[in-house]
Amino acid sequence: MTIPVMDRGDRKAGTDAGDKLHGCRPQARGFPDGGLAPFLRAARRSPRIPFPLTLPIRPTLRGTIELIDRTCGHLGARTAKGRKTVTPLRLYLVGGFLGAGKTTLLRVLSKYLLVRGERVAVVTNDQSADLVDTRAFEAEGIPVEEVAGACFCCSFEELVGRLRSLSESALPTVILAEPVGSCTDLSATVLQPLKKFYGKEISVGPLTVLVDPERAHRILTKRSKGGFSPKAAYIYRKQLEEADILVVNKIDDPQLLPHADAVEAILKELLPGTPVLRISARLGLNVDTLLDLLETTPFGGRKVLEIDYDIYAEGEAELAWLNARATIRFRDPQYLDSVGCYIADAYKLLLSQDVNCEIAHLKVVAMGNGEAVVCNTTSVDQTTVVSYGDRSSPVLDAEFILNCRAFTSPAYLERAWRTLLLTLSQWTEQTRSEACKAFRPARPVPSYRFATPIQPADTA
Ligand SMILES: Nc1nc2c(ncn2[C@@H]2O[C@H](COP(=O)(O)OP(=O)(O)O)[C@@H](O)[C@H]2O)c(=O)[nH]1
Ligand SMILES: [Mg+2]
Fold it and tell me: Which of 108, 198, 288, 331 is the most buried (most CB within 10 A)?
């Protein structure tokens, strides 16, 4: 398919302009008195992050991936016959808050779609370059491009450019797109313009919004804000409100099941017209049902939010963002999974010195010898897991990227990064910082905004 070049002249920009951060930004929090030295010492002493880095093997998801492969094989055989034929290029946007499981689901959906005979490509999105998610897709051989530097809604033309270039290079029949986890109003600012201007080339599927049961439970029952101010909780609720399909994820975790039950009931009551599914992206549970629903729903973006952009901007600016990259030369060969988990654990430990710092998502990709391992954690209390990649042979040289989104200040994230590198440099031949960007997301200023849903017949 060919996506025509967008003509700006006859299109109307959407919301009000202005990219200043608002006054309600939380105070920058420094490390507590005494600087970082005590934490550095604690990090070295801590039994949770022993040196040297030859840690015992972490539980990996090899078994999970094999299970998905088996399930996909079965699924393909079962559903290939009666599948609904879709228009040449179908786009599925999978949203949801940071850490809800979007990347995990997109990787699994890619496998299911391939088995159903589709050619799949992915567009990732972040406020800055050096994105762990992009590397995770690349490592799996899935064609991927990223919109880096702003969210899809504020970089609509870049999104169209990525769709166009992927459609030429990978000839996909389906493109999966993962928006920034703190974004909302995607229906009005991304799906409606796509339907309006590119409806003949792209069939826009339903907007799926993934939900982490524990986080949703904390916000929807208001029992504990869990680092979420009322403004951040406002964004979370708006994400749910605009969904065409709501998906409660992580039902494989027995500890999360009671939350999943409660959240499912609350969502059904709050948003009675929206289908609510329960899945485990990690195990592939019910992913076939989700895909059937995606394929049989003719178009997405059926709802458009009423939203206050001041609250949205202020809520988003309560988060701090760090995208950083470094290279390491070890003294002795090390396993990438140990390196990735060590780095995530050490960084988490450094951040935990401020009790008010709430991690929304911390992820590390460690790369070397053509292998990549992705390690993840979504809170200070959560164990770091290897979510992609297996232990292969140890490496002497590695590159790692760390992405952290947390309710704290960018300065705090950056200082913790520098301390981490200092710690690493004492135990390695060489540790070199290659890039480091810490910031707060700027006010969202969408390229387009539609106040009402576009019906496919309204396509330009
Ligand atoms: N138990 C469980 N964990 C999951 C599941 N899906 C994702 N996760 C974990 O949740 C964390 C965040 O996942 P990720 O896909 O990176 O979230 P994203 O920020 O929404 O893209 C990672 O540690 C994943 O391993 C699931 O179905 N079950
Ligand atoms: Mg992701």
Answer: 108
pLDDT of amino acid 223:
67
pLDDT at 380: 82
- Select 39-59+319-439's CATH number: 3.30.70, 1.10.10, 3.40.50, 2.60.40: 3.30.70
**What CATH number is given for 83-315 in this structure?**
3.40.50.300
Check if 282 has its Cβ closer than 6 Å to any atom of ligand 1: yes
Verify whether ligand 1 is closer than 6 Å to residue 385 (CB atom).
Answer: yes
The residue whose C-alpha atom lies closest to atom 26 belonging to ligand 1 is 250
213 lines ligand 1 (CB under 6 A): no
Ligand 1 proximity of 348 Cβ (cutoff 6 Å)? no
Residues of the chain with CATH 3.30.70: 39-59+319-439
Question: In three state form, how does the secondary structure of the chain look?
Answer: CCCCCCCCCCCCCCCCCCCCCCCCCCCCCCCCCCCCHHHHHHHHHCCCCCCCCCCCCCCCCHHHHHHHHHHHHHHHHHHCCCCCCCCCEEEEEEEECCCCCHHHHHHHHHHHHHHCCCCEEEEEEECCCCCHHHHHHHHCCCCEEEEECCCCCCCHHHHHHHHHHHHHHCCCCEEEECCCCCCCCHHHHHHHHHHHHHCCCEEECCCEEEECHHHHHHHHCCCCCCCCCHHHHHHHHHHHHCCCEEEECCCCCCCCHHHHHHHHHHHHHHCCCCCEEECECCCCECHHHHHHHHHHCCCCCCCCCCCCHHHHHHHHCCCEEEEEEEEEEEEEEECHHHHHHHHHHHHHHHHCCCCCCEEEEEEEEEEECCEEEEEEECCCCCCCEEEECCCCCCEEEEEEEEEEEEECCHHHHHHHHHHHHHHHHHHCCEEEEEEEEEECCCCCCCCCCCCCCCCHHHCC
Delimiting residues of CATH 3.40.50.300 domain(s) in the chain:
83-315
Rounded to whole angstroms, the Cα distance separating 100 from 256 reads 13
**Atom in ligand 1 nearest the alpha carbon of residue 136:** 16
Ordered mean pLDDT values, 10 residues apiece, the chain (460 residues):
35 32 28 37 39 35 38 32 56 97 96 96 90 88 94 96 96 97 98 95 97 94 72 96 98 96 98 97 96 96 98 96 97 95 96 92 94 91 86 91 96 97 95 96 96 82
Q: Is the pTM of the predicted complex or chain greater than 0.90? A: no
Is the CB of residue 445 less than 8 Å from the CB of residue 15? yes
Determine the distance separating the centroid of ligand 1 and the alpha carbon of 377, expressed in angstroms. Answer: 8
